[in-house]
Structure formats: structure tokens, C-alpha cells
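User: Structure please.
Assistant: Input sequence and predicted structure:
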Amino acid sequence: MLNEEMGMSSSTLLRWCKEHFNQTPKQIITDYRINQAKILLKAGHKPSVVANKCGFKNLPSFTRTFKAITQQLPSTYRKKDVFD
């Protein structure tokens, strides 16, 4: 677990993340994964490949999370012009 890697309890890690980033550890990790997914999608990778590379357990889970954060489907984001 992340808290063990950092040498603190889970509640201490939660407080620390909220204090420094105003997010939970899970939110921080999810944001990182979605940002990586955006890079891969813009590079032309298919959403199913991106979901796997970014650690999502399946495509529907990735699609749901991606849309909740970006308000777009991964396939729409992939096709969207870089300058939009």
C-alpha cells in the first residue's frame, strides 16, 4: 500500500494529501492516470489499449472515469484536433 511505502498510516496519508493537494490519494492517482491516458490517446492509441496501459481493469471502467473527469468519451478525445 502507498501509505506503507511512505511510512505512515492511511489516515495520516489522507490528511497529508488533503492538506498539500486538496485531493485524496485516490483522486491524485486517478488524475495522473487520466493525464497519461490523454497523452496516449493524442498519440493515436486506441482507447482499449490506453485503458490497459493506464491500469484500468477494463474498458468500461476507463471510459466511465475518463468521461467523468473530461466530459468526453476517450474515442471523441482521441479524434479531436489538438488545437480545439
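The chain has a mean pLDDT of 92.
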